[in-house]
């Protein structure tokens, strides 16, 4: 029985393909080896990542905060004579009350009594009686601002009014201050927010008399200071970035030399991987540092803008 030509033709094709494959077997193996080497070489030569540029650590500087505006009542026009008022009485709460009445009369907010400012006023009055002087600056060059810093009162601005003499009462004392341009300016300064007062009767220059002290303050809390911890972190990050940058530069130089000469591609690939991981760490730290710098500078600008409203 004759075979169908449709069956013979596929057999002939299979025989031809088998012969061709056998003939080119060696070449095919060579091609496979070449492809494997190329693919393997590509996998063992990963790209070396370039680190980002280290950010500038220029940080803005907070403005100097503290100012002092002392005003002294002249002893000539404002000193009450010892004989006019035999038994005057002056109290700190009433001095504050009459001071705030004057502010309300001018449409200003009343001053809030502050215990630390009271302490500053008390220390000042005790020192003047003890050392027998009547002035804003002590014989040892100490001012109200110095006392404030000593007791921990953080301020943007501080002012002082002094009075010496037996004034009839608190109303008369405040009226005397209001009659003096400089002291009136302290009492009516719109930006002052807090007050402390001390009044004491003791011996001054051989006579029993009263001294009174007003301390005015703009507390630092009204203008929050930039977070110094943020600045510390920036400085720490900057030091870390400098160290990492030096390490990366040394490693990159070594990798470039090794790239063309190494025979151990696996070892080289591992070194590149470690280098790239270090670059990622460096770049992430740069991102964090930039955010910290932006935050600190933003806080500093807000702080300085706030201070400018009180000067």
Global geometry: rod-shaped
Task: Please state the structural category.
Answer: alpha/beta
CATH class of the largest domain: Alpha Beta
Biggest pleated-sheet summary: 5 strands, mixed
Q: Ranges with pLDDT <50 over ≥5 residues?
A: 31-45, 71-77
Q: How large is the share of residues in beta strands?
A: 5-15%
Widest sheet, order of strands: 1-3-5-4-2
Structural domains: how many: 2
Task: Give your account of this protein's structure.
- This protein is α/β, with parallel strands linked by helices and 311 residues long.
- 56% of the residues lie in helices and 14% in strands.
- A five-stranded mixed β-sheet has the order 1-3-5-4-2, with helices on both faces.
- The model is unreliable at 31-45 and 71-77 (pLDDT under 50).
- The radius of gyration is 42 Å and the shape is rod-shaped.
- It contains ten helices and five strands.
- 23% of the residues are buried.
- The protein has two domains: 78-222, CAP (Pathogenesis-related Protein p14a, 3-Layer(aba) Sandwich); 228-309.
- Helix 4 (92-105) packs across helix 7, helix 5 packs across helix 6 (144-151) and helix 9 packs antiparallel against helix 10.
- Keywords: Coiled coil.
Helix and strand topology:
Blueprint: H1 5-23, H2 25-43, E1 67-72, H3 75-78, H4 92-105, E2 112-113, H5 115-131, H6 144-151, E3 155-164, H7 170-178, H8 181-187, E4 194-204, E5 207-219, H9 228-259, H10 265-308
Parallel strand pairs: 1-3, 2-4
Antiparallel strand pairs: 3-5, 4-5
Helix pairs in contact: 4-7, 5-6, 9-10
């Amino acid at each position: 029985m004759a075979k169908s030509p449709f069956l013979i033709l596929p057999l002939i094709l299979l025989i031809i393909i088998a012969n061709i494959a056998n003939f080119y077997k060696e070449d095919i193996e060579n091609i496979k080896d070449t492809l494997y080497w190329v693919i393997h070489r590509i996998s063992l030569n990963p790209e070396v990542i370039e680190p980002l540029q280290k950010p500038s650590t220029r940080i803005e500087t907070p403005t100097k905060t503290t100012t002092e505006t002392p005003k002294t009542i002249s002893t000539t026009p404002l000193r009450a004579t010892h004989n006019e008022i035999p038994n005057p009485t002056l109290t700190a709460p009433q001095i504050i009350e009459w001071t705030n009445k004057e502010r309300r009369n001018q449409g200003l907010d009343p001053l809030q009594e502050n215990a630390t400012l009271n302490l500053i006023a008390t220390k000042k009055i005790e020192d003047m009686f003890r050392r027998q002087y009547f002035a804003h600056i002590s014989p040892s060059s100490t001012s109200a601002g110095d006392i404030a810093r000593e007791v921990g009162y953080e301020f943007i601005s501080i002012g002082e009014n002094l009075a010496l003499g037996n004034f009839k009462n608190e109303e008369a004392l405040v009226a005397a201050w209001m009659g003096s341009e400089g002291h009136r300016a302290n009492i009516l300064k719109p930006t002052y927010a807090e007050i402390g007062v001390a009044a004491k009767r003791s011996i001054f220059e051989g006579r029993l008399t009263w001294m009174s002290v007003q301390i005015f303050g703009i507390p630092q809390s009204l203008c929050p200071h930039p977070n110094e911890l943020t600045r510390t972190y920036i400085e720490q990050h900057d030091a870390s970035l400098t160290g990492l940058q030096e390490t990366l530069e040394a490693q990159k130089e070594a990798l470039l030399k090794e790239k063309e000469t190494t025979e151990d591609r696996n070892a080289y690939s591992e070194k590149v991987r470690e280098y790239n991981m270090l670059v990622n760490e460096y770049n992430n730290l740069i991102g964090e540092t930039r955010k910290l710098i932006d935050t600190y500078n933003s806080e500093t600008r807000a702080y300085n803008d706030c201070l400018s409203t009180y000067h």
